[in-house]
Amino acid sequence: MLHWIQMFVRRLLQTCWIAVRALQRNTLRSCLTALGIIIGVASVVAMVAVGNGAQARITHEISAMGQNLLMVFAGSKRSGGANSGLGSASTITLDDASAIGRELKDVAAISPEDSTTAQAIASGRNWSTSIVGESSDYLKIRDWKLVSGSMFTERDVQTNSKVVVIGSKTANELFGPFDPVGQKVRIRNIPFVIIGCLESKGGGMGGQNQDDRIIIPYTTSMKRITGNRFVRSVNVEIISPDRMQIAQQQITSLLRQRHHLTTDQDDDFDIFNQKQVADTVDSVSLVITLLLGAVAGISLLVGGIGIMNIMLVSVTERTREIGIRIAVGATPADIRLQFLIEAVTLSLLGGGIGVLGGIGASKLLGAVADFQAVVSAGSILLAFGVSSMIGIFFGLYPAHKAASLNPIEALRYE
Predict the structure, then answer these.
(1) Which residues pair with 149 in a beta bridge?
(2) Is residue 385 a contact partner of residue 70, using CB atoms and an 8 Å limit?
């Protein structure tokens, strides 16, 4: 048994060596043949990496908003046919926000939101920024940390305290590299004490800079800054992701009841469900990634056809060589294996170079588009696997044709 195994291994290695030498005799043609596979594999790896990178970026922006987040917006206000957008209508009150937190058991934290844009003045500088009124739970809801200082308390909210937590962008514009905690900033000519500075979160949904803001107690904002009696929106954190859909339905029922809406009336509010948006983005991104990969995969198919074409030409050119090999003892299986190894070698060589090229191309595209392309091990294995299968599939017919040659006719071939 061992003797037969040794003979098989020796015969296999000999066949591999003959196949490699055959490829070396036509180096340029072999390289050009592998080029189709190189381009195809590189395209698949690069396109999938770009799709994964885009998905990761969007997912990061959504998750930066917080965990298990529902945002209840006031309806839109229409004037002269113009729609002012969500949050512009006067439909959600502080009592509505309190009722959501009090009556829904799935609510972990809540923060009514009042916002405007105003000029902030400090240390001889001024900067136009977003002034956002929130509750003391806002940073917990948004999963946002402080680099210095602390968040204002519920007592600060109840007493309309003139304290603020400042974003990193606004802090840099007003105070430069210095820690702003303990300093004063004037908003609408009202002095506020900075008690905390937020860590940077960068861009958010819609391209807005989340770091360019000043957060104050919502009661202070409504009574001292905007004068609003209604809130623009309510941030609601739900206890777990699997309860978000149920909580959304409960909030809808509660607000419709409180606003005395009949069954034939539309909601005068809108609810943004973070999980639904994230799931939708994942689904769309997956489809786009698969589409990009499929389009790039056409190059692999073209490369496989190129391999078959060259292998058929090689069989014709080496007909006499095949006849000589059969005459000296090579079996049809040896001939078939030789040409199959040549096809698979071309395919795997092209796949290896293509993977390296695809990684380089994805990094370049990511740098140009200003986002991080994500090269996954799955896409690399897929590209390698497909290129191997292409080598086998498109090499079978030429290998079978070579093994089926009549040795007498092959020896006569000129």
Answers:
(1) 196
(2) no
CB 391 within 8 A of CB 348: yes
Burial 287-310 (b: 16+ CB within 10 A, else e): eebeebbeebbebbeebbebbbeb
Question: Is 194 a member of any domain?
Answer: yes
Q: For position 147, what pLDDT does the model report?
A: 94
What number of other Cβ atoms are within 10 A of residue 44's Cβ?
29
CA separation for the pair 84, 154 (Å, rounded) = 32
Rounded CA separation 199/219 (Å): 24
pTM to 2 decimal places: 0.64
Q: Which residues of 25-35 are buried (b: 16+ CB within 10 A; e: fewer)?
A: eeeeebeebbe
Tokens for 405? 């040659």
Whole-number pLDDT of residue 77:
55
* Residues written for the chain: 414
- Per residue in 302-341, pLDDT (tens digit) is 777 887 887 787 777 777 777 777 777 777 887 787 777 7
Q: Is the separation of the CB atoms in 76 and 88 below 8 Å?
A: yes
Residue at which a domain ends, from 236, 271, 305: 236
Kindly state whether residues 146 and 216 are assigned to the same domain.
yes
- Closest Cα partner for 41 from 380, 289, 311? 380
DSSP strand pairing (213-217 vs 125-134): parallel
**Is 202 found in the same domain as 284?**
no
Question: Cβ-count burial of 396 within 10 angstroms (0-12 exposed, 13-18 middle, 19+ buried)?
Answer: middle
Contact 107, 238 (CB under 8 A): yes
For the chain, what percentages of helix, strand and coil (3-state, to nearest 5) are there? 60, 20, 25
Q: What are phi and psi of 113, to 5 degrees?
A: -125, 130
- For the segment 70-91, the average pLDDT, to the nearest whole number, is 62
For 109, the enclosing helix (H) or strand (E) is strand 107-122
> Which DSSP helix (H) or strand (E) runs through 165?
strand 163-166
- The Cβ of residue 322 has, within 10 Å, a number of other Cβ atoms equal to 22
Query: Which residue segment(s) compose the domain that 149 sits in?
Result: 111-236
Looking at the structure of the chain, the number of domains it has is 2
Task: Report how far residue 266's alpha carbon sits from residue 272's, in angstroms, rounded to the nearest whole number.
Answer: 16
229 and 136 fall within a common domain: yes
Which of 236, 262, 289 is the last residue before a domain boundary?
A: 236
